[in-house]
Amino acid sequence: MRNTITKIAAILFVAIAFTSCNDKTKPQVQFMPDMYTSVAYEPYGVNTAFANGMDSQSPVEGTIARGQVPYDYPNSNEGYDAAKNELKSPLTEYTKNSEKGKALYGIYCAVCHGKKGDGQGDLVKREKFLGIPNYKDRDITEGSIYHVIMYGRNLMGSHASQLTGEERWQVVNHVQKLRNDLLK
Amino acid sequence: MKSVKKHSQIGRLVVASLTFLFLFTFSLSAQGDAKVGKSLFNANCAACHKLDKKLVGPALGKISERREMDWLKAWIKDNNALRASGDADAIAIYEEYKGSPMTAFPQFADADIENIVAYLDADPVKKAGAAAVAAAPVEVKESGSSNLISYVVFLVLAGLVVYVYFKSDNGFLKIVATIILLFNIAYFGFTALMSIGVDQGYQPVQPIAFSHRIHAGDNKIDCQYCHSAAKNSKTSGIPSVNVCMNCHKNIGEVAEETATAEHSKAFYDGEIQKLYKAAGWDSENLEYTGETEPIVWTRIHNLPDFAYYNHSQHVTVGGIKCQKCHGPVEEMEEVYQYSPLTMGWCIDCHKETKVKMEGNGYYKNIHEDLSKKYGVEKVTVAQMGGKECGKCHY
């Protein structure tokens, strides 16, 4: 009788030991966890020291990060018109980097505007977004393209958080190239 | 009000006569108008207007019940001029939408606008029988079944060993059983120890059931559209909700075809509502309320802090595809950790991966020196120093 109980106990022990290791929604145990997780703040971590409870904080208002160029045109119809008429690309022949502009356009714009800028991106073809204009039908300048990437317009949202200032201008450069090709 | 009434009488007359003319001349192609109108509408108007819902501009279904055809033509062709002429309706609608001007469409002929209105007046045709739910392929998870097999084998062996120990008097059998037992313990003990800190297959439950299959797979949105920090920074970046709202301002519900056997359309629509709550988006009035709340995602891929890893170094400089380490994310309904992320796994890749040396004038000399030193045409990452301790541990 005692033997049977030991047997059952042994089998149960093994069974429990195995199933408990198999939960995919939980991370594995760590050896010396203080070596894995340091006291330094992780990006996107929770942080009770700040009012909004997050590690990542917005830059202090009025400060400019190194390499960043402030954008002074307001997000309004007047700002759009002003940017359209006045704003010029600061890129030189050297920083234009048309290949990078093309790659960035492929990532951030082509999904709606289409690889050729004809408004036939994958999302349009799948009827998720409709009415994306062909670049050739719109009277746009480098200033207005930059302004729209910066703030968005109508249904298009701002893409300023996804691209740096220089990258935005490189995309503008590519959009103009596409528009010129379409107008031919 | 009086003037509007007069306006409408004339308008009605015009519409009636036009309709008559149309019926008379194109009595057979009445449906065609709406069809032509639909394609015109989808190509030019649908970016800002829906039939049944307010978007950037007002809902336009059955518009002729609310506006006169002449007014519509004048408005669509050049709404700026119409406003300048002092038309009260035009100014009112401009004010209602907080002064966001509609694009002028001078390229439209009168007939085009009539076609569009014909489409807007027709009953919106719902797609029939779209609810055909594709049977999702039942996946047998490889790791799960192999785990089960080893588990059963272990149980049987353990049972045998216990039986031999307690029931049998055969000395030889006992020795064999002991050896088997020791091997077993060694094997399972080793596996268990090796899995410490290795989270391959880790698949936590996320606060929003974001489906990479729908976004990256079906809709072919580039990984870097959302993970935009990967090209310039150490982390790949969890997109802030403004990036989600770039599309989801427009997309408040999923299409019927998006639903699978596993998750219904209602389920996915509910998940989009969670996003609206986090972003503080009022989907009725289409504006932000300002009441936001952070989405607390659970991090899956997490290197220990004593190892340095930089995304931009691999994505931008190395030109490595995301899938190389993260696996087929575009097929994952819920993301899991595809790679073990162990040191051996890193080093293996560094040993195999050849550095793209051509067209890189800046490093021409050192590339040539290295390939001479190792006597190879193309040096690997490891030969360039990708195996040195201090590259990742410092």
Account of the 3D structure:
The complex is a heterodimer of chains A (about 180) and B (about 400). Chain A is an all-alpha fold and about 180 residues long. Chain A has a domain of about 110 residues: Cytochrome c-like domain (Cytochrome Bc1 Complex, Chain D, domain 2). Chain A is about 45% helix and about 0% strand. Chain A is built from nine helices and no strands. The mean pLDDT of chain A is about 85. Chain B has a two-stranded antiparallel ribbon. The termini of chain B are far apart. Among the domains of chain B are: about 120 residues, Cytochrome Bc1 Complex, Chain D, domain 2, CATH 1.10.760; about 55 residues; about 45 residues, no CATH class. The longest helix of chain B has 26 residues. Chain B is mostly helical and about 400 residues long. Classes of the chains: A mainly alpha (about 180), B mainly alpha (about 400). At the A-B interface, helix 1 and helix 5 of A face helix 2, helix 7 and helix 11 of B.
Question: What secondary-structure arrangement, pairings included, does this model have?
Answer:
The complex is a heterodimer of chains A (184) and B (394).
Chain A: H1 2-20, H2 33-36, H3 77-86, H4 93-96, H5 98-108, H6 110-113, H7 122-125, H8 142-151, H9 165-183
Chain B: H1 2-25, H2 30-44, H3 69-77, H4 79-84, H5 88-96, H6 110-121, H7 142-167, H8 171-194, H9 212-218, H10 223-226, H11 241-248, H12 265-279, E1 281-282, E2 287-288, H13 311-317, H14 323-326, H15 343-352, H16 364-374, H17 382-386, H18 389-392
Antiparallel strand pairs in B: 1-2
